[in-house]
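Reviewers asked in the last cycle whether our approach scales beyond single polypeptides. To address this, we selected a multi-component target totalling 423 residues and predicted its structure end to end. The input consisted of the following lines:
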Amino acid sequence: MYGLLDCNNFYASCERVFNPSLNGKPVVVLSNNDGCVIARSSEAKALGIPMGEPAYKLKDLIESNQVHVFSSNYVLYGDMSHRVMNTVASFVPDMEIYSIDEVFLLLEGFEKIDMKTLGEKIVRTVTRNTGIPVSLGIAPTKTLAKVANKFAKKHKNYKGVCIIDTDEKREKALKMTGIGDVWGIGRQYSKKLQYYNISTAWDFTQRTKSWVRHTMGVVGERIWMELRGTPCFEMEIPSAKKSICTSRSFGERLTEMAPISEAVANFAASCAEKLRHQHSLASVIMVFIHTNPFATNQPQYYNQTVIQLPVPTNDSTELIYFALNGLKSIFKEGYRYKKAGVIVSEIVHERPLQGDLFDTRDREKFNKVMRVMDNLNESFGRQKVKIAAQGFDRKWKLKNEKLSPCFTTKLDDVLVVKAEKII
DNA sequence: TCTGGGGTCCTAGGACCC
DNA sequence: TCTGGGGTCCTAGGACCC
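The resulting structure, written as structure tokens, was:
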């Protein structure tokens, strides 16, 4: 059996843990730049606030209902996520962290134990240890565990745990599950299936395998099998990322090269850090910038450039150098830029390194510098040491006017050392 | 007149997830 | 005025190989 444990309204719940006066009140959390609603407490959902709605459109609703609004605080949510996962790990050794607020559990070797009792104990303990309410679905496949999880979340009398372990329960649950609510069925597939008169997950399972294969390919066939109780998705072992992206919308529109350069340098440095973290090197770096596509009355510009690196690298200074060169080649005067980003790809493991016969860079030395920098930043707080090109102005910085404190991970005062000095 | 069979790699586009 | 960020997988078609 597979379990899926999912935190209820995760970001909103994190804000509540350190501010219990919010309990019972509508709470929403906004995306970066205070853009869209990305988490809602149940009270906020009841007010009809939709997921993904731009915040400015909700101004009246928020004011008239005294909705508590927060900017997203990923440092806090990341730390709370760790705490949840650690607690779960103390019960089930084989788990796959699927997202910041979800974890799959492989419930093997628990045959002698009553699943319901075990599940309720996990749910109770996580909530007691972390303050985060969670729900657990248990079923023979991951897709069915997702279905079970929705029921556990929706109906109070389940006490946070719903188990699908017989064909009767499976049929009943699937008949009550809209086709669009199935894991792996998004908007497009949902529309297509509705067209064929399939409105519930159960309807879908009643089609023949060959029909599903023909209509939705192997992707649909797997979902079909999973819903019928045959596992197609196993527990996955985390592997190194094949591409890494850092991009942000700017807090205000930027027209000058300088602040955009600073932003791009920061994005490149962030990619480099993520690469080093997973012991990888990137062979290709891509930079993009664009104006605000929603501002249809203003001149639009979108461009990107792909740069093949001479030698695969995870060195911040080198990635910044190439990223800024790329930016120079695509930046055009006369536009109000809204967003930029850096994506690194063709990622390889750091050993063995395929070098370049004519490489003149002292890679050994720069590796050491990066290591020292990472160690300092880990000990004394993020961005304590950075590359000078990352700058200090942060004109590009995000808008997050309603940020809660980093309750669990307070940083010391910032001390910046210019990179040249260390090198 | 009649022209095989079995592969790989790459890319762009489309779908999905949180 | 104000609309997020970061990923993965699959498929079809074209180019190429023997």
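The mean pLDDT of chain A is 92. We regard this as preliminary and will revisit it once experimental data from Aim 1 are available.
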